[in-house]
Amino acid sequence: MIARLSKQFPSIWDRAKFVALNIKHTLKHSIRINKARQDLSPFLKGRALENKLVEFSVQGMVMAKVLIDMYGTEKASEMIGNAQKECIPVLLEPLMTYLENEVPHHLRYAVVNGISKKLMTLSAEGEGLFDIDFIHDDIFSSKFEFHVKRCVFRDLGHSIGDQDIETENNATQQWYCSYDEKILSALSEAGEVQLKRKGTLAQACSHCDFKFTHKPKAHDVQESESEQSNQTESEEQASQ
User: Fold this and answer.
1) Are 210 and 116 in contact (CB under 8 A)?
2) What is the helix (H) or strand (E) element at residue 135, kind and residue range?
3) Any idea of the CA torsion for 106, 109, 111, 113, to the nearest 10 degrees?
4) What is the rounded CA–CA span in Å between residue 218 and residue 47?
5) How far is CA 200 from CA 154, 176, 204, in A?
6) Backbone angles phi, psi at 173, to 5 degrees
7) Exposed end of the chain (fewer CB within 10 Å): N or C?
8) What dihedral do alpha carbons 134, 139, 143, 144 form, nearest 10°?
């Protein structure tokens, strides 16, 4: 991610400034960051704690905060988005290949719903990253929905002075929420589901909402209509 961000700086001086500001910002908020680590430690467990997730998360937050300070929200969002777009295909390639080559079209949405449910459950119960309510948890239903009521990443935002909520001008929204949305959107396309979100905790909403709706592609609709038509014709011939 850092390497992909580095390619977007207009000059070597901007890149050097970015590195210097990252160090300065980390030092400036070191007391608050350390306190955040201590406050979050009781919640974290399993892989999240073993892999020092908090440290990695703070680094990402700081980078987003520095980019916003250097270039403003719009440019920072563009740079982060470009880097994310390069990372996501690599990250999702095995899953996308599996969906396209191994899973029938009419079951892809259920697979995506199932993966989302499993990952969120593990992240919540196994790692302590979130508090989650499943509103509609049947992965084979045309509607699959859950709400995130507490998010470690949003809590971390406060540790670096990320207080500008209720707008898009905060590191949590730009770094984590947008990445989250891009990954889920990519999965949604392959899995033939549509993701809808009204808001996030980083935008001062009461929760982050995730709502997946089955959205068959045109060829699936045509195949389904063709099957129904053939079935109707067979029934009519049988009745005669």
Assistant:
1) yes
2) strand 130-136
3) -150
4) 41
5) 9, 11, 7
6) -65, -45
7) C
8) 30
As given in the structure block, the two tokens for residue 163 are 């207080």
Side chain identity, residue 84: Q
Is residue 198 within 8 A of residue 209, CB to CB? The reply is yes
- Prediction pTM value: 0.74
- Token duo for residue 160: 């670096």
DSSP annotation of 142 reads S
What's the token pair of residue 99? 């969906």
End-to-end CA, the chain: 66
Beta bridge partners of 237: none
What token pair was written down for 16?
């050097």
Segment 180-224, tens digit of pLDDT: 778 877 777 777 888 888 888 888 889 999 998 888 765 554 454
What are the tokens at 151? 């998010």
Token representation of residue 143:
């509607």
Judge whether residue 143 has pLDDT over 80: yes
